[in-house]
What does this fold into?
Amino acid sequence: MLRTINHAPSLAGKRVLVRCDLNVPIRDGLITDQGRIAASLETIRYLIAQDAKVIIMSHLGRPEGVDEKYSLEPVAVTMSELLDQPVAFATDTIGAEALGVSKVLENGGVAMIENLRFSEAETSKDDAERLGFATKLAKLADNFVSDGFGVVHRKQASVSEIATLLPSYAGFLVQREVEVSQQLTDSPEKPFMVVLGGSKVSDKLGVIENLLPKIDRLAIGGGMVYTFLKAMGHDVASSLLETDQLENVKGYIASAKQLGVELILPTDVVVAQRFAADTEFEVAAVDSIAKTKFGESGIGLDIGPDSARAFASAVSSSKTVFWNGPMGVFEYANFSAGTKAIAQALTEVSGLSVVGGGDSAAAVRQLGFQDHQFSHISTGGGASLEYLEGKKLPGLEALND
Ligand code: ADP
Ligand code: MG
It folds into this structure.
């Protein structure tokens, strides 16, 4: 059983360190999407209302050491505006400033410490280094609340080690994600379908093997599908391809067959001349990707209309659907039809429909869908995939009784 904050003993006057996922996109010092900050407010407001002293921590991007470009300070400013109260900012994480701020906070007050990844110990592969960093973080607070679902599958100091050092609870975001993931894994209503796409090809190929025994249907689109098409003997021209995964993919195709999982691959794709919004394009059957007028330089950037129809009908006739990864380069209108068709079909599912992954979530919103049309839009693509695979997530282990 997950320990959640509403079951914590009184937090009034207690210093509570909250791990959020405030990894927002920043361009020229400006936050271009506040989504993750807004999503974190529920837990933070709850803690303020409990009269706790709230100390927020997060990572931002992948800095190597201290790098002003990745400072959380603009995030603290936005957080303060949204909360309509001051958010004290410490320019370090475990230094004098952070410690000082944590000591002078008043009940109901909020502070934020600097980007955790300015310290290499946060993500170190060395257990002792991570534990050392977490021990110093723990000095800032009396309790720990884990609310960054996007990172709970990571063995990182502020995610896993810290939870073993302080009385720890799941925040509302993590609680909701775990509830939905449990629904998906415990007794999914059948047929259970997983749709995978996107561009993090090797990350996502790896999960297929573990998912196959749990599902009835698997549809593949996006950038990862070209490794499948190649494995089946097709020439994929200049499409995204992970050559070193070809043998693995052949293995997945064989196990899908053996396990009786219906593997749904596109029969046609949209081939583009270049990777650009205004480029020329042509629909081609999967055995003719290299035979368009762009020849070997053609790039598959979306599933084709026949495939979109077939994928959509499999989705809408399933009872449980988990979708992670866009079917094409949805950021460009010419290559967004496949993703839109899947999103539409998901809204027609009569059972549980879950969208996972940062870009997939952005895609459904950008394509005009509303959050309430899906059972759940997850904030952590990688974390929910690992949960589905049946892996133990380091950040959740210490939160379970
Ligand atoms: P998520 O964040 O939902 O997990 P990913 O990060 O794996 O998804 O992938 C999202 C990206 O994949 C999008 O930016 C999209 O443009 C890109 N993408 C989708 N299809 C293709 C393709 N055929 N070729 C290259 N990139 C693609
Ligand atoms: Mg992504």
About this structure: The first strand starts at residue 15 and ends at 19.
